[in-house]
Design brief:
Layout (H helix, E strand, L loop, with lengths): L1 H19 L6 E2 L3 E3 L11 E3 L6 H9 L9 E4 L11 E12 L13 E3 L3 H11 L18 E7 L5 E10 L2 E4 L4 E4 L2 E8 L4 H11 L5 E5 L1 H9 L3 E11 L35
Length: about 280
């Protein structure tokens, strides 16, 4: 159930980002999380939560998201869907990762990591995350979300040079084709950045949330780095992107339009390489 726990954690993080942008929360169903409005840039409009979706369930998931304009994206958490007939193409593939709670944090830790607590610190964190350019993706409302912590690693002069978003999920139950299976509580890591960031990030997690396994997803060189720091790959995922529109009612104007094909390649390991995060 490691993939199910990671997928649920990721969907809850996507939901938190939507709420931080002033959108209502999405819908958590047995098979998928969906949002009826276009989600913030780099974040999916749907995330599957359990494998084995039927054709009817797939159609219901796609009917629950805004496909009136190009750019709708779906995180296929079990790499099992074929959304090509529905006008989607694979944007990229990755691997869910899991690090057992009992595994000690790797060392050496070259800088202390602390939570971001103020709007000014969040702006500085976001600029560092974006390679020095200012942007407005991570909103101050995240600082009040009890399940979300923005971690920052600082240089000796106090500048933020590394960081990550940590999202915590309590133990929950997920419906499968045969039964309802429990998933353990986990700590999810996304938007990791900075030189050799894993040791400091994992040390901060172990200090603040001991006894919790750590999950996320990566691909390419970032997957190799995670595996070097004690993670195991637990299964593939795919992110699908639609470049077409499905005729339907015009949605209410959305202040946070979702990704476009042009934006899709502007991203980081977990969110910016994806239609997500």
């Amino acid at each position: 159930m490691k993939r199910e726990a990671a997928a649920r954690n990721n969907a809850e993080w996507c939901d938190a980002m939507c709420r931080a942008h002033g959108l209502p929360g999405g819908t958590f169903g047995d098979r998928a999380w969906t949002h009826p409005r276009r989600t913030p840039p780099y974040y999916p409009d749907a995330v599957t939560l359990a494998p084995g979706a039927s054709d009817t369930e797939i159609r219901a998931m796609l009917d629950a998201v805004d496909r009136s304009t190009p750019g709708c994206s779906v995180k296929d958490s079990f790499a099992e869907l074929d959304l090509t007939p529905h006008g989607f193409e694979v944007l990229f593939e990755g691997q869910w990762i899991h690090r057992p709670a009992a595994l000690a944090a790797p060392g050496p830790v070259t800088r202390a990591w602390e939570p971001v607590e103020t709007v000014a610190e969040l702006a500085a964190w976001q600029t560092a995350w974006n390679g020095g350019d200012r942007m407005d993706l991570f909103r101050p409302a995240l600082l009040a979300d009890p399940a979300t912590t923005v971690l920052a690693g600082r240089a000796g002069d106090g500048r933020i040079v590394a960081g990550a978003v940590v999202s915590r999920t309590a133990a929950t139950a997920t419906a499968t084709a045969d039964a309802t299976a429990a998933t353990t509580g986990v700590v999810g890591v996304s938007n990791l950045f900075g030189p050799d960031a894993w040791p400091g990030c994992l040390a901060a997690i172990a200090d603040r949330w001991p006894g919790m396994p750590v999950v996320g997803y990566e691909h390419g060189d970032d997957l190799a780095a995670a595996l070097r720091h004690g993670f195991k790959a637990t299964g593939p995922l795919r992110v699908w992107l639609s470049s077409s529109a499905v005729p339907g009612p015009v949605p209410v104007s959305d202040p946070c339009p979702g990704i476009s094909p042009e934006l899709a390649h502007a991203a980081d390991t977990s969110e910016r390489d994806a239609a997500d995060t």
